[in-house]
Write a structure and sequence with these properties.
Layout (H helix, E strand, L loop, with lengths): L2 H17 L3 E6 L6 H13 L6 E6 L10 H11 L7 H16 L2 H12 L17 H19 L5 E6 L6 H13 L5 E7 L3 H4 L10 E5 L5 H11 L8 H11 L3 H13 L3 E2 L6 E2 L1 H6 L6 H11 L4
Parallel strand pairs: 1-4, 1-5, 2-3, 3-4
Antiparallel strand pairs: 6-7
Keywords: ATP-binding, Nucleotide-binding
GO molecular function, one term: adenylate cyclase activity
Protein name: Orc1-like AAA ATPase domain-containing protein
Length: 309
Amino acid sequence: GRDAELATLQDALRACGAQQRAQVVTLLGDAGVGKSRLVEEFLEWGGQQPEHIWLFRGRGGQEPGRRPYALIRDMLAFRFQIHDSDRAAEARQKLERGIVSFMGAAGAERAPFIGHLIGFDFSASPALHGILDNARQLRDRAYHYLAQFFEAATEVQPALICVEDIHWADDSSLEVIDYLARACERLPLMLLAVTRPALFDRRPDWGSEHPNAARIALRPLNENDSRSLVAQILRQIPNTPPELVDLIVSRSEGNPFYLEELIKMLVEDGVIVAEGEQWRVELARLAETRVPPTLTGVLQARIDALAPE
């Protein structure tokens, strides 16, 4: 049910390489509507293309204590395999080696600026001598070096920056993403920003100023697509009872996540018996089952059904 949206993403990635111009795509939708599933399908397709693509991936979060520029840190940590469990010195080395691998010797001088901005402690680096007390200059140079980094990366092959849940991202991270979209306009780079509508309460003009900007609004699945999804999930049930399909489709209201959680609840309640290669439906149990009217209710019902340890 998302073929048109997937094709739009695919066209944008092709265009950034063919036109040597940045493409900025915002994928917009409510919770559970299928954004993550579409992104994974798109990235899987991208990984199968003959032309290799540098992938940088980050995610906004609500965790307490997240630093400014956390989204940018996530992107580079993903690319350079920097883990939270790494010692500070090891994390700095991975970042510096990664940047040098794209920028050459100049990267060794630029990495401390980028790293220090995004929360790695490069305060002992000679490159930052005399500038640590000037936060604005450090920030401006780090921004500039980040743009140079992506310029160097895309000399070899296109790059894809995929940032998800940016409605939870800190403002400083959003500023960097917006800066890169403008500074890298003439590079074969695709920026895919995935968000809920809440982002536009903070940033009503998000993405609109870029010449190659597109916005994909994911709507709830229509009835036919919902029925197709139910049939796919319940394909191990021969002759699925129509009343079961009707119940799932009507209550899920086109929300794929709600639909899947509702099916899981019906399995846990014994309505759907998922044993072996052929599943079955207990119609008597179905008639007795009360389905919560909201996703929150379904999730709570599943939690309540968990057996105590």
